[in-house]
Design a protein that fits this description.
alpha/beta; TIM Barrel
Length: about 350
Amino acid sequence: MDYRQLGGSGFMVPALTLGTGTFGGNTELFKAWGQTDVAEAKKLIDICLDAGLTMFDSADIYSKGAAEEILGAAIKGKRNRLLISTKATFRSGDGPNDVGSSRQHLTEAVDGCLRRLGTDRIDLFQLHGFDAKTPVEEVLTTLDGFVKAGKIRYIGCSNFSGWHLMKSLAAADRYGLTRYVAHQAYYSLVGRDYEWELMPLGLDQKVGAVVWSPLGWGRLTGKIRRGQPLPETSRLQSKASNDAGPPVPLEHVYKIVEAIDDVAKETGKTVPQIALNWLLQRPTVATVIIGARNEEQLRQNLAAVGWNLTAEQVKKLDEASCVTKAYPYWHQAFFKERNPSPV
C-alpha cells in the first residue's frame, strides 16, 4: 500500500481508506449502503490491515452513531495498528445546539465520537459541512483546543466551498491556530467539479483531498450500462439515497463507462479499479475512501493500487468525463498562459 503525506502536515496516510458508511444500516439512507455488523466488520478490517490499508473513516451521523460503535467494537486490541478519521457538524439530535460547529456542539460531538469508538484520540477529525452561523474563529479555537488536549491529532473539513476553506485557513494563519490539512470532498469520473476551484486551492494551500464516493454514488461499479436495468443491490434503487447523492445524467454515465470498458480491455482491470486508479493519479489526492458491502467488493477495490494507468488511458478517461464548467471557470480556461489547469 502506498502511503502519502496529508496536505502540508507530516502525517502519512494510506492511498486507500475504508469508509464505514456500510456499518450498521439502521436508517433508510444507510440501509441502502449496507448492513455490516461487528463480526463482518472485524473480517473486513483484518483484510484491510493485511493489505496495508490502515485508515478507517466514519461520522457521528452514520446510522445514528451505530457505524462508530461497530468500528470501535471491531478494532478492540488493534487501535495502535490503525488510524481513525471521523466527522461531525450535521444535526445529531433534536435540541437547538445539536447541530453545527459551535463550541457547544463540537465539544459534545467529539466526546461522543470518542466514547462510541472506544478510543482516547481521533487521528483525523473533520467538520462534515460548513456552519455559516458560527464564527470561523470560534470553530478553529475549539478545534485547536482539542488538538492541544490530545483528543484530536489533525483536523480537516468536508464539503466546503472554496471561500469557506480559504476564509478558515486565513483565520488560522492570522491567529496561529491549527490549520486544516484535509478536505474530504466528492470527486469521481462522473463528478469532477472538485477540479475547478478546490483542487487549485488545495495545491496552493497544501490541503490534501480525502475523496468520498469515488465510484460516483454507485454509478461506476461496472453494473450500470446502457440498455441494462439497475442492479437490485444498488444505492441508486433507494429514493432516500438518490435524494442525498449527486445528480448525474445517465447518458454521461454511459459515455464514461464505455470509455472505462475500453481501458479495461487494455489493462485487464475492472471498472471500479480503473475509476479508483484514475483518482489516485490526480493532484492533491491523499487518500480515496472505498466502501464494501462484503469481502469480495473489498478485495476488488484493494486491487486498485500497485499499478498505474498510462498517460494515454488517463487522457481517454479525461475526455470522456469532461463537462462544460460553470462560470467563471470556463472563462478562466482562456487564460491558461497565466492561469494553468491543475491537471
